[in-house]
Amino acid sequence: MPYLLAKNKMKAVDLARDVEISQGFLSEVMAGKKFFSYPLAPKVAHRLGCKMEELQEWKY
Fold this sequence. Notes:
- With about 60 residues, this protein is an all-alpha fold.
- It has helices at about 1-5, 10-20, 25-30, 40-50.
- Helix 2 (about 10-20) packs across helix 3.
- The protein starts with a helix and ends in a 12-residue tail after the last helix.
């Protein structure tokens, strides 16, 4: 997600404000401790101009 934020010239605080979540929750998502809910993921993806699948770092 840091890449997506940088690509959009956005800070995490801006994203949190835009999608109406706390900075703490977003920080935990970015650390891999929590995940976006299904209703929230499309909202975040739309704001970042990506697909929902791109929000998660997948380990194969």
